[in-house]
Amino acid sequence: LSQVTENTLLCPSPGAMSQAVAKEVPQEEGEGGSRRSNWGLLVTAGVGGTLVALYAVATPFVTPALRKVCLPFVPATAAQIQNVLKMLENRSGSLVDIGSGDGRIVIAAAKKGFQAVGYELNPWLVWYSRYRAWRDGVHQNTKFYISDLWKVSFSCYTNVVVFGVPQMMPQLEKKLEEELECNARIIACRFPFPCWIPDHTTGEGIDTVWVYDLKRSRGCETKSLEITPETES
Description:
This protein is an alpha/beta fold. It has a domain at 92-214: Rossmann fold, CATH 3.40.50. 46% of the residues lie in helices and 15% in strands. Strands 3-2-1-4-5-7-6 form a 7-stranded mixed β-sheet. Helix 4 links the parallel strand 1 and strand 2. The N and C termini lie far apart (156 Å).
């Protein structure tokens, strides 16, 4: 009896073996499924995080393009910067760059002694412009604002630089005509204004700049007041 019992314990019957295997297999499959589920969650989280990051970076670039009038970012060339600076010779006062991009014009003007300001809708470009101004040591003479140009008044500036597109030039021409003083000078890059006649032009091709002095465009003249002495009656 003891031998039969011992053999039975050492060599379980086929039915007992099948039951044991049946109990173990689901457990292994459960562990494998759990591992696959964890990997799936990690992959989903990684893809989701990447998409959110791409959205955060791309939105400031894409959003302006969804507006009625698009002002895309196209970096100014070295020749354009030199042409702008040439047209600013013998000028003084404050300067604003409408659509300042990465701040090249503003920084170059600040190095020439101007108190220069840039308005740009793309926050990434504004932050980069501030960094460049700090790196070049002109951050005290420059300011960069995240703003829509149509919501800003330019009445306090005497020098205006514009990198525009044809679709926006008529409306911007009217806006500047209404806001700027007679002593203002406007420098348009790449595209001229439709109605104003430029007082100066320099450069060629995409590097051409057109200069408009509102004093001449408006026919502003300095008139001296004649004072007639009062006569005693």
